[in-house]
Amino acid sequence: MTVLVVWVLCAAGWGAVLLALRRGMHGPSRGPALFAHTVTPAGTVLLFSLIGLGSLYATIALAAEWWALLAVTRFRPERLLSTGGLGRLAAWAAVTAAATCAVTRFALPM
């Protein structure tokens, strides 16, 4: 059941970031940003499988990254680059790390 919740959170986070990018990005950077976001899940799962970790770890990390991005940028991911600076990037990294640790401890108790 926990794995299903992680997958749903990951899919919902991916979709929310996709909608926010489609709504907020304009100009020549929109196409590459949407393409990169679209191929991220497959690329990350492939990377984790190549280095010998399961896709659950990748799913947890991706879900944490997407929800942290939405939280730090207030559902406007383009703010990370346009008005964020290093402070917002650092906040995104810190929230992502904390969420990844918390969800991993919850989903994979040892």
**Helix/sheet category:** mainly alpha
- Which percent range fits the helix content? over 70%
Biggest sheet overview: none
Succession of helices and strands: HHHHH
- Round the mean pLDDT to the nearest integer and report it: 89
Strand content: under 5%
Radius of gyration (CA) equals 14 Å
Structure summary, number of beta strands = 0
Transmembrane segments: 44-68, 89-108
Keywords: Membrane, Transmembrane, Transmembrane helix
Summarize the structure.
By secondary structure, this protein is an all-alpha fold.
Give the SSE layout:
Blueprint: H1 2-24, H2 30-50, H3 55-73, H4 79-82, H5 85-107
Helix pairs in contact: 1-2, 1-3, 2-3, 3-5
What features would you describe in this structure?
The radius of gyration is 14 Å and the shape is globular. Helix 3 (55-73) packs across helix 5 (85-107). It contains five helices and no strands. The mean pLDDT is 89. It is mostly helical and 110 residues long. It has one domain.
Structural features:
110 residues; mainly alpha
